[in-house]
Amino acid sequence: MFLNPLMLFGIAAVSIPIAIHLLNKRKFKRVRWAAMRFVMEAVKRNQRQLQIEDLLLLALRCAIVALLAVALARPALQAAASAGLFGRRNVTTVIIVDNSYSMGATDGVQPRFEQAKLAATEIIDSLPAGSSAAIFLAANGYEPVIPEPTFDLNLARKTIDELKLSDRSTDLLPSLRAGIEMLESRDGGELYLITDAQQLGWRQLEQARTLLKDAGRKVSTQIIFVGSPAEENVGISDLRLASGLAPVDQPLRFEAQVTNYGLQVASNVRVTLRIGDEPPSDEALIDRIPPGESRSVSLFARLRRDAPSAHHSITATLASADALQADNRRTLAVRALTSVSVLLVDGDVTADPRNSETFFLRHALQPVPPAEQQQYFIQVRTIQPVELESTRLDPYDAVILANVADVTDRTIENFAAYLRRGGRGIILFPGPQTLAWSFNDRMFKANAMLPAELGEPVGDATQDQTFVTFATDALTHPIARLWTDPASGSIASAHFYRYFPLIPDQRNRAQLPNDAGAAAIVLRFNDAQKTPAVMERDWGFGKVVLFASTADTGWNDLPVRPGLFVPLLHRTLGSIIQRQDEHLNVAVGQPFAQRVDVDLLRREARIRPAGGGEHDVVSRTIELIDGQAILRFENTGTAGAYEVTLSDDRPPMLFAAQRDPVESNLQPLTEDQIRQLAESARIVRWGDGQEFGQRLTTARTGFELWMPLALVVLLLAAAETFVAQWFSRSR
Amino acid sequence: MAEHLLDTETINRAEALGLHARFIVEGYMAGEHKSPFHGFSIEFTQHREYVPGDDIRHLDWKVLGRTDRYYLKQYEQETNYVAHILLDGSESMQYGSGKLSKFDYGRQMAACLAYLILHQRDAVSVGIFDQRLQVHVPRTGNLGQIHAIMNTLAAFKPTQPTGIGPVLHQLAGQVKRRGIIIIISDLFDDEDEIIRGIQHLRFGGSEVIVMHVMDPFELEFPFDGLVEFDGLEAIPRVMTRPREIRNSYLKEMNGFRDRIRLACERQKCHYLLVNTAQPLHEVLSGYLAFRLRTQ
To answer: What pLDDT shows up at residue A544?
Structure first.
């Protein structure tokens, strides 16, 4: 309550006027007096009034002294935890600055992040001498820039000045928790969270409130909201390779999803696509995006065979002058394929190739005229099951088993070694010859290589009246996602007359071998049970994809629907091949990890961060992790393409960090939510009138009363002079 | 009393007083040729015992021869008036803000008047009273008695409370002939008693002159700060801040003076307020001049 409570002892000085009063009573002249009658008469008439006036004057003087003491003690209206015995106590502070990319939004004058830095500097400036400050950056997770509170406030100022915006999204809870834990371990202090009022950062609002409320006794929290609400924002929320595979010199379809996060219709949104630093290869115009909705556009690019590296960065850019520029670009790292080799194992070889089990597969994998097949990037070799055991699998990117009756133990061992090497996959189409029990026993139960168990086949392949199709809902798997766009045609066009019901693996992680990953459903049938139609599983560093029906027209008409079969097959192949490239695109803030050749172990790899120059290049040692040579890089806070040079004799590779598109949604907290927050923390808005630093001090100390008190003392002193004069008048 | 009179200081003071009185009166008489007090004729009335300082011319040798005692022959003066000077010797007269107390001033005045009257060959008697007549110098017309009067005045020490009324009544009973009664007092006593006493005297046909002796401090009450008034005449002490009650005091004081003055006027008495700050000769000459004018 008092900033300088020692001064309250000054109230004892009230005794001074009382003592003076009493001493004065002792200090008198004694006069031998004759005319006593008249004195006594006069005294009798006035004594009571004189006494009252005496007491009044004494009370007035005591009040002046007491009020002066109280004023010197600097009373404050709010309970100030910062008041020490000798004035303002030093405080331990944690300043959390939100550096998610929404903080890059600008009101046209100053980006939110710059305001946040100014606010943080003002907080440092407002700290009493001897205070310490720790500084955290908060986005999704937190980065302690000054992890322990430092007493060197100049260092803190310098650090704040050098803070950089990231491309992360926001989740403020972890940083709040870390800040509160730090302050609680130091017996309390002040926590400042500087953020935009973006709703996204408070997804766990309820938990944050509980956290703040629980910490309230030791930690006083102030949340400083910077920036004015931004109404309009259009951003690229997704950029994907829609083609499934990324062969060189082929037109590749990329799909850019543009979302309007604003409150008004966005019109004539131009999206361009380019490869690396080349001029745009394609552009598209979206004439209208209603508020809150997304539009996807297809953009084409062709990866050059003669490029210095197989890795390419594909960047989609939005020409929009909205508040938030960061989400107007999105970069995708793609590894170009010069060739893909596929080994087909035909379980039903006939004299007429058109009747063979792999006839449709071959044509679907090489959907070009026979003359061009030699130059096509997918090369196919067909063998018979008996050859499988003796065939070296390594040269092939994928092995497709079509209607194969059985495989030997040796083959299964070969498969395991093949899959463990990575970037490879096995695709299994069962058929009439398939011995389900054998596959179930040896590839499902024994080693969980298959993602599902094959059930008893259902349906009748001899008729074409009763069939199932693929279900058109829940197309969430990357392979199936293409068909969420109606422009890609209907996935339900194929008829399945007979199929093996796939029984998903029910075993938990502990019961599975280490190599087996989680089984995922790619597509389902639209039968009553929504039986899985295609499932996949990561195994080793490869992938196994299991179809429920045949690869020829024996049990279904999928192969004769090239609009569905070819992309499905290519995307399945793509998902297998890209398994080794899927880590090329990480979310901002996620570590990048790349398996590299063992001979590079302990070597230094050079990494040039996104948007960085030669002087920003950092080195990382390639380390042995789980028996693999792994390059790991954590500082992926900036979105864009990162260039990795593993050694001087190899072309550089690329990976890309991509922003979490949810951060583009600048929707602020509602008034109600702010009110809820204000119950457990003090809410301050940057830049609404009163000087910020002054408000901080006021918040720390409460409203100081010494000034009005001093004024009252002055008035009382003036009154005392007047009253004393008036009282001492002759009566 | 005798040892007091032998006290050199007392004698000196009496001398000084006498000289002072003489100076004052002679100073006045130098300009005046007519005594303000009329009457001159001597008729034997009684004997009285000799006291040192008496003129031995008036010794009754016959009595001495017969009884071996020193008696003086006393004569009744054939004047129009006998002046009775009544000096207030109560304790309250001891107050004096300056060098002179009211009593000092009063006895100078009494001495001067006595000298003046004797010098005019008029008779004078001097009495000092408090609650009763304490000292009395009987009527004499002999200027030589002035020393006895002065010694008596000098020797007196005021110690008792005032009681003017009874003294006046007593005097009224004793005064057989009409005379002038000069009361020198601060009159700090019951006003009604004083007024009744004056009435009594007036009833007897005497002229009464009231010399109201007041100290300037009593008239102006100029005290400051915190003062404890220690009452003379056994009145309890009072602590007050006089400045703040000054107006009340003056109102009381002026009211008192006015009542006395009005009563005197009603009784056709001369009332003279004597401020001890004023030089005595001014006061006396002023009054005597006024008296001459009004006779």
So the answer is: 94
**Both A129 and A10 in a single domain?**
no
Residue A334 belongs to a domain: no
Q: Are A29 and B227 a contacting pair at CB < 8 A?
A: yes
**Nearest residue in A to B219, CA atom:** A35
Instruction: Give chain A positions within 8 Å (CB) of B161.
Output: none
Residue A410 lies in a domain: yes
Q: Does A731 touch chain B (CB under 8 A)?
A: yes
Other residues' Cβ atoms within 10 Å of the Cβ of residue A193: 24
Number of domains forming the structure of chain A: 5
Summarised one tens digit per residue, pLDDT across range A514-572 is: 888 889 999 999 988 899 999 999 998 889 999 999 999 889 999 999 889 998 998 89
Q: Does A27 touch chain B (CB under 8 A)?
A: yes
> How many other CB atoms are there within 10 angstroms of residue A131's CB atom?
21
Selection from B223, B152, B211, B144 nearest residue B184 by Cα = B211
A65 and A143 inside one domain: no
E strand residue ranges, B141-261: 180-185, 207-214, 227-231, 238-240
CA A47 to chain B, closest CA, distance in angstroms equals 8
How much is the pLDDT for B97?
Answer: 87
B279: Cα separation from own chain's centroid: 17
Q: Which residue is listed with tokens 């004694």? A: A30
User: Which two structure tokens, joined as six digits, stand for B21?
Assistant: 């009185």
Nearest to A165 by CA among A192, A191, A143: A143
DSSP A525-552: B-STT--EEEEEEEETTEEEEEESS-SS
Domain containing A298 — which CATH number?
A: 2.60.40.10
Q: A306 and A345 share a domain?
A: no
Task: Kindly state whether residues A454 and A543 are assigned to the same domain.
Answer: yes
Instruction: Give A-chain residues touching B273 at CB under 8 angstroms.
Output: none
- Phi/psi region, residue A148 (left: phi>0; alpha: psi -120 to 50; beta: rest), is beta
What's the domain range around A32? 5-75+710-727
* Shared domain check, A260 and A246: yes
The reply to whether residue B245 touches residue A33, judged by beta carbons under 8 angstroms, is no
pLDDT digits (tens, 9 = 90+) for A301-339: 988 888 888 889 999 998 877 778 888 889 999 888 888
CATH code of the domain in which A617 resides: 2.60.40
In a domain, A546, yes or no: yes
Domains annotated for chain B, with CATH where assigned, are 2-38+80-294 (3.40.50.410)
Q: Which amino acid is at A542?
A: G
CB contact under 8 A, B188 and A35: yes
Same domain, A598 and A572: no
Pairing of strands A458-459, B227-231: unpaired
Residue A566, in any domain of the structure: yes
Say whether both A431 and A521 belong to one domain.
yes
What is each CA distance from A268 to A177, A260, A292, A478, in whole angstroms? 44, 12, 16, 29
A66 plus A90 within the same structural domain:
no
What are φ and ψ of residue A376, in 5° steps? -65, 150
* Cβ proximity of A664 and A260 under 8 Å: no
